[in-house]
Structures are given as structure tokens and as C-alpha cells.
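Look at a sample.

——
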Amino acid sequence: MRIAHVCTDPGIPVFGTKGASIHVQEILRAFLRRGDDVTVISPRLHDAPPDDLRGLTCCALPLAPKDADAMARADWALDTNDRVEALLAETGPFDLIYERHALYAHGAMEAAAARGIPSVLELNAPLIEEQDRHRGLVRRDAAIDSARRGFAAAGHVAAVSQGAAAYALDHGAPPHRVAVVPNGVNPARFPRTDRATGPFTVGFLGTLKPWHDTPTLIEAFALLRAGCAPDARLLVVGDGPDRGRIEARLDALGLADAAHLTGAVPASDVAGWLGRMHVAVAPYSAAQPFYFSPLKIYEYMAAGLPVLASRVGDLPQVLDGGRLGLLVEPDDPAALAHELARLARDATLCAALGRNARAHVLEHRTWDAVADRVIAAAQPATWVA
């Protein structure tokens, strides 16, 4: 099958290290493992691909003008729709057009609809609301119109959560074309390893951005150190705009020497860093709308780690109400510290949670299963593979 994978989001380097980049790479790997012929269309193709992705055909879109302001970047994104349609016509024909939804993007889905090509629109976040809240939204009417056009044209919308699906429906996606398809994991990246030794280490993996409630995590870590685990360590794997604030708070609490912030790491190194953790946390604030299907949680689970997550959004379902990981009320450092202390004292519980989580995610939540599901959903009744 010939598949075009389109990602016009200028903030996502296809072969980069951020979570969204890893998401793109893993779905590409799943397509390649199926034996599909994949063409990637994106403005962010400048990094060298990993060895196992060198079989891709890459078609680079022009980048946004250097030093462009928000208005000029929006105009560039809107103009990119015509460039995407032209590239699809030039490099096709394709059996499937798969697009990661981006702000101001609708060209790929409309091209698929116009040519009668099956299509999938992968939806990871309510981008208009996210842009408005965290960065500032310009050309609002154009953004809304573009989203509606993309959702209306898509043959199938694969939303990573119930919150994301609601956004698609609010923007005109036909209900019968929308399904919730949570993220997955690549088992090959997470071989079984021995449990971590040494001081009890609380770990966090992810981009350091406001929707990750690292302030609550830091306060809880301070309480843990003041209580039953005075030698506990904090390991933060990732980088982002909140790093300076995190380091300043750790320093103010006298905990700078008890924490290690790695900065950005290659995907190939993630499993090694997870192997240094005794417990992995996914803190989110109730003050932030929750629409995620966090990659970190599935990777924690695949690594056989006990997971401790905020009780928000779809996370109680992901962790099966506590069977596959512990849940704690958000925005409550004392509650988080209490559960961390529980895990620090109970190695048997840690082992059981990690064992159950790993078995579940490797059986039910692989990227291969995600790819098979969305491709099957996009197939018309007369499809011949």
C-alpha cells in the first residue's frame, strides 16, 4: 500500500526528540513494518532519520519565513495547503492519505476527498484552544474554518482521547467517522530489564511545558524527602521552557543536589533512563483542560514501572481504575507524596503494578495495533489491500 503521511505543523521536527516527533516516528515505523511504501510530507525534515526510517521517501515543504511574526506564520500555514495538494498530486497516486492534524491545515484531507482516496486525520489536541491558551491565536476565523474543512473532508478521524474527539465533533466532524484511538508503544524499544537499585528514584519523562504539573511533583518530592525517604532522588528526563522554573524551585527547597534534569535525550536512550527509576509519575493539574493520551504513560508501562498519575481525563481508564497504576487527586502535593511514600515502602506493590502494566500495554497498546486499526477504519467496503 502507498501511504502519504502529512505533518505540516512547523513545531514538529519529524526526526526530532520531542514527544510529538516520537509519535510521528512510531506510526511511520508501524506502517513500514506492515510493508507499506510511505512518503512523508513536512516542512521539518532537516534532521537525519534513524537508521530504521531511512526507507521513507521524504518531500520537504518550504519553511515559514525566517523571523516571521504570528500573522505571517498563519498566512504561511494557510498557503501550505495548496503546496500539500500539489505535492500529493505530483508524488501520487496514493492508497491512503494520513495526516497529523495541524493548525490551519486542511489541504491533505480535501485532496483525498476530491480524489476518492481513503484518509485518516490523526487528532492529538484541540489545537485552536491550545494555541489560544498558551501562545496566542491569530486569524481565528481562518483557523476555525480550516479545522471544519479538514474534519468534514476526513474519511476517518482518529482522536487520541475523549476530549480530542469532542473537539472534532464540535468542529463539524461527522460522528460516525470519529473514533477514540489512544496512543501506543513500540515493544522493541523497551526490553525487559532488572529493577532499579540504589536510592528510591522518582522519575518524570516529557517536555517541560505548563500542562505537566511539575510544581506539584516538586513539592511532593520535598515532602517525601522530609518523611520516609530522606535519600530519595528525582530524575527528570526531558527539556522545555519550564526547566528554569523547575531548577529555581528545587534550589529554593535545597533539593538541587537531589535532582537530575537530563535535558532532551534521543528516543534510543529513553529506556535506559527509565531503567534508573523506581516509580514514574504523570502529574497534571485540574486547572488545565485534559485531552491527552500521554506517550509517557505507555512508555512507563512498557518499561515495567509502577505508574502514579493524576486522576484526570481518560487516565483512570488507561490505568484500569488503579490495577495498572495508582491514581491521585490533582494539585495536591501531600496526596502525591503519600502515594510516593507508599510505593517507596512496598517493593511488592511496585513489582505487581509494573508487571501488570507491562503485560497489558504489550498485548493491547502497540503502535502496530494502532496502525492496523486506523487503516481498517479508513477502508471503504470495496477496498482491496
